[in-house]
Amino acid sequence: MTTTARAEGIVDLHAHTTASDGIYAPARLVDLAIESGLRAIAITDHDTIDGLDEGLARAAERGFLCVPGVELSVEYEGGTFHLVGLSVDRRNRALCDTLEELKLIRSKRVDGIINDLNRHGIAITAEELHGVSGDTAIGRPHIARALIRKGYGTSMTEIFSKYLVRGKPGYVKKRKIAPSEAVRLITDAGGIPVIAHPISLNFKLFARFEEILDGLVAIGVRGVEAYASMHTPEEAERFAEIARARGLLVTGGSDFHGDKNERLGFYADGSPIPAEILADVENFGCAEPRGLVS
Ligand code: AMP
Ligand code: ZN
Ligand code: FE
Ligand code: FE
Predict the structure, then answer these.
(1) Residue 288 in contact with residue 192, Cβ under 8 Å?
(2) What residue ranges line ligand 1, CB within 6 angstroms?
(3) Ligand that comes closest to the CA of residue 260
(4) Predicted pLDDT of residue 3
(5) Could you say which DSSP state residue 57 is in?
(6) So what's the pLDDT on residue 2?
(7) Beta 79-86 vs 192-195: how paired, if at all?
(8) Nearest 5 degrees, angle CA 121-CA 125-CA 129?
(9) Of 35, 50, 61, 169, which is the most buried if we count CB atoms within 10 A?
(10) Are 7 and 276 in contact, with CB atoms under 8 Å apart?
(11) 3-state class of 78 per DSSP?
């Protein structure tokens, strides 16, 4: 494939499956990506790589490029942010072990959230939730969907404005790992650590973002997700420029979950996520670039 050919079309390097809080199973997500005309997808579930085997197997079957990834919630001095690891080795022992611990922490936190909702008179039980989520990295969207089913709201946005966030019923802080630990886990597993939707770092000025970014680059962060659903096209270009000026990987993804008004391969108000970012990902050297099943 030539660079020119690869430069055409769209990709999506940030998407969730039923292994975490997406609504489509990994194989179905890969099918959807193909149906949507994408050139590649990355599966980046929260705190789990359990969806990768199924997604990569389907991609291999259909001759499609699926990049194996993961999304970690990280705590730093200024708050929290998400770190996406692209092209991770899903058999890496340290990564698997840490993710199992994080899954357990998520499950306990959900019990705390249910207790708090119950205290506020909202009738929801652990059985109702664990029943639907199975062995997944369970999170707030699972609870939000259960609340919608029970008539406490009609959309994810509405639920997240009334519940599950700081100061509202059903908020329990999640214990997160430190940036250096997250970066090490991803790097040791052969992956590229990338700051997901950097606007969520909540800085006021881009100059401040550059400072934060430089600190993170110093501990091993190697990329910036410039094209993200939370960004306007102007912000996306700004993030891309800042990343390129430092020789960092510029990446992008819709953060597809399936029921939050996102569209595979697009960000902001329908701007395409350019496939040319793929060439960059390959230049950064992926342990498992083609996501081949072995
Ligand atoms: P958790 O990892 O359990 O804290 O859940 C975080 C996930 O909840 C995010 O990745 C989003 O999928 C979802 N989420 C958080 N805030 C909102 C919001 N305001 N509207 C819709 N979804 C949200
Ligand atoms: Zn999510
Ligand atoms: Fe995220
Ligand atoms: Fe995400």
Answers:
(1) no
(2) 21, 46, 73, 139-141, 156-157, 160, 174, 257, 260
(3) 1
(4) 39
(5) H
(6) 38
(7) antiparallel
(8) 130
(9) 50
(10) yes
(11) coil
| CA–CA separation, 141 and 156 (whole Å) | 8
- Token couple for 209: 């973002």
Q: Which amino acid is at 250?
A: V
Question: Is pLDDT at 290 greater than 60 in this prediction?
Answer: no
Helices (H), 50-125: 52-62, 93-119
- Per residue in 262-274, pLDDT (tens digit) is 999 999 989 999 9
Residue nearest to atom 12 of ligand 1 (CA): 141
* DSSP string for residues in 278-294: HHHHHHT--SSTT----
List pLDDT tens digits, range 93-138. 999 999 999 999 999 999 999 999 999 999 999 888 866 656 789 9
The strand pair at 79-86 and 65-76 is best described as antiparallel
CA distance 58 to 40: 13
Q: Which residues contact 74 (CB under 8 A, 6 or more apart)?
A: 80, 81, 82, 83, 176, 177, 178, 179, 182
Q: Which residues, in sequence order, are CB contacts of 6 under 8 Å at separation 6+? A: 39, 275, 276, 278, 279
Q: Which ligand is nearest to the CA of 142?
A: 1
Which of ligand 1's atoms lies nearest the C-alpha of 260?
Answer: 21
> 151-208: per-residue pLDDT in tens?
999 999 999 999 999 999 999 998 899 999 999 999 999 999 999 999 999 899 999 9
51 CB-side CA count, 13 A: 32
